[in-house]
Each structure stands twice: as C-alpha cells, then as structure tokens.
Amino acid sequence: MTYQCVSGERKIYVRKASAQAVGKVAKIIFDFDGVLVYTAESFRQAIRSVVDFYFLEILDLKGEKGKLATLKDIQKFKDSGLYNNDWNLSYTLITYYLSIVFRHLQQKHVFQDFAKKFNEIQFSELKSFLKTLKKVGEYIKRNKISATELGEMKNDPSIGLDSFLAQVEIKKQTSLENTLKFVLKNVGEGEIELVKKLVPYYPENSDLHKRLFEELYLGKELFSRFYSLPSIFKFDESYLEKEKFIPSKETFDALHVRFGNFAIYSEKPRLQGIYLLEKSRFQNYFDEKWALFGEDLAEYDGSILGKPNPTFFIELIKNIDEKDGQIAYVGDGVADVLMIKNARLEGLSNILFFGVLCSSPCSNELFSQYIKHEAEVIMTDVNDLPYLFANLEKGF
Question: Same domain, yes or no, for 203 and 255?
Fold first, then answer.
C-alpha cells in the first residue's frame, strides 16, 4: 500500500513517498467551510432549502421537502470537483429541474405556448418578479407537473443526476448550456435564455438566486447586517449561526507554536468568515494578509474564479514565500486536491495537500478519491494535525 497509518487510533494516513516532505511543513493554509467549521447543517442544508423554496414556495408546485436535493445528491456534485461554490451548485440543481419541466412541456406539446407567455419576462425588482413566477408556477401546475415528479426524474437512467454528472465529468464544465443540452432535445438559444430569465443569477449584481440563497443561509438579521439591505424573505433561522468550529483551542495552540499564524484560502464571503472567527475568538491565530476569501478570488467581471482553478491560490503562495519548507493546504473535497494538482502543473513545487474526511457523508468514497489524486495526508479532521507531526518526529 502506498499509504501508511501513522496514528492507529486516530486513523491518520500519510503517503509513503511524501513522508519526508510532510515532515518539512513550515506553514499551514486552511480551507474554511468543512475544514475549520462544520457545514453539514448549514451550507448543505441551505442548498437543499434553496432548491425546495424555489419549486415548492415560489412556483408553488406540489411535493415533499428534502426530495429534490438530498445530501447524497449534493455530495455527488462535490465529488465531481467542479461544484465547490454552493451558489453555483444550487443554481445548477434549479436549472436542471427547470430543464425537466421544459421537457415535460415539450412532450405535452405546450412548450411553445409557455415560451410565448413568458419569453419577455425580465428581472428588475424582486417583489414584482416573484409575482410573475407565481404565474409561471400556475401554468406548470395546470399541465399536471409536480415537484414530486421532478424529484423522481433524477433517478431516470437516461437523464437522471448520475448521467448528468457523468456528462459534466467528461466535458469538465458546469454551464447552464450543458444542463439544458443534456436534458432537452433540440435545445436552442431561446430555451437557454428562458431558463436564465426564470432564475436570474448574476454573482456580481442583484438577482433572485443569490439573494434567496444568502437570505436563507444568513437569516433576516445577519443578512441585513452583512449586506445593509432589508430582508425580503424574512427567514428567522440562520444556518450560519449553526456553524461550529472543528479545531479545538488546544489544537490551534499546538499548531501555532510550531507554525506561527495560519493562512486561509476559501470561497466563503469574508464578512461571514471573520464573523465566525471573532465569535469564537480565534481571529488572532490567523494572519489577515494571508487570508483570501470569496471577494478576493473575483475576476474583473465580478465572477469568482473558484476551485479547482489555482490562479489566486498561486498568488497567495507567492505572498507567503516560504522558501525553507513545504506549505500544507488542508481541504475537504475533490475540488481542493484538484486545485493543488493544477497549481503544481503551473510550477508550484512546495505545496502539499492534506485531506479531511469529516465534512463528507460518504467518507469512504472521499477517502478513495484522495488516494486516487495522491493526497499527501488523509485524516478525519484538523484535530489530527498535532498527532500527525508528533508521530512524524518519532519516525515510522
């Protein structure tokens, strides 16, 4: 076996060929969600709730909550390595199901009538747009299409989620066009544009999708605090408040003695990350100039150049400039390890990947993915790090 367990009780695995390099780590960079904080009850539940809210509340289709997007479905998207950003993931799920709605309307020979009624729909102001979407939902219901039926279609052998994700893996893209062309026959620009109109998503501007996600994830009070806007959906619950830190103070103390201040590379919005750090009084363990969040990964057009693209990660490594040792990036998914591999292809030679399993409901599958992509270290969570370095010092 190419991996050896260096701490039996804690199940920490080190790639044998990388053991010497792991022992030379001089700086640690953490991902945030799933690595520093548990997100199983926050982001992943927010994805499920956003998809449910769009179809069950906004369009008012009949169905049961939690069926359109299960945690297993979400993990399948994560394991592709192409859906690290949860805005993009939830948007893709919504457009996937809208594509199935369009397919049903085509089969009922009413799609042209549907398109004629709603092709001029334009997003300008949220409250009035939501009223228009109610009419869209009424049309869909009149044609006896339910959210229950949509949820059943994801298991279809030809156009189900597994087949869709297999196509995504082959084409290495997450575009709306890919979603529609997979589900629909004779897809054209008109169908693509109509889906975009039904679920507006412009990460750099006001829209429906991002607004719904952020309000639902933050709750009305934190949404107004972070965005300086009044809440429209007025969700009382805050998923962000459910996020609890994974590393203990003892873990941070032990690592801080050895490595100094830590760095962060995450697509999480900065205000949300800083809020959690300050809430738990952990901000002093991190160096602000080495903390890159979602806003720092934005291109000139406002879109986030996220994982597995290594562009901004390479810039962070240059700023850290650790010439005398290796740098470890601790991540929680396939997109993270692929980013490290891509960074190496760009010439970055002093970076190692440490993968944690705690954030995945399918840890055995994630373990296999880490081995496939030759992660240097595989562990349960970041509290294993002090034990890892202690065992390496003893030799194995």
Answer: no
